[in-house]
Specification:
- It is a single chain.
- The chain is an alpha+beta fold.
- The protein has one domain.
- The chain is built from 6 helices and 4 strands.
- It has a 4-stranded antiparallel β-sheet, covered by helices on one side.
- Helix 3 crosses helix 5.
- The C terminus is likely disordered.
Length: about 160
Amino acid sequence: MEGRIQRYGKRVGYTDAEMEKFAEEGHRVRQVMLLSKAAPLHSIEAEVVESRNCNSEHVKGQKIVMDVDGNLVTTLCPKKLCVYLVSQLTIPVALINERLGEGLDPNDFHFMRTVRCPDAGVDCMGYGEVTVQVRVVPRVKGGMSAVYGSGEGRGT
């Protein structure tokens, strides 16, 4: 198996048997190979475009930054992150991840480019409301080395 895949397997702690299983059907190998090429180039960003009465104090313009795998880069995120808002990023991040893994334009997905926290706001018997726009941006510097080290990560 190629060096990138071996390094990935070692990083996540696969046994030899798990490495063999991992390579079955090829889709996971293809995903890791393409994401390892995208990792040094891209970050996923969820920018707050609307916020009212947020208990976690999310404000317009604030950015939640993730690597291409969807891991939060905490050094580039707000100190407080609302679990209800972050949970809404699952589908758009999965769509982006899938598109990167197929070598497609990661921002050309159809659904959920903009997501809201599930709180309906005070007018609807809730507390607050936050909306974020999700997109892929050129890799954000300053905290990614904590995730990927100096070119290691996914085998880059």
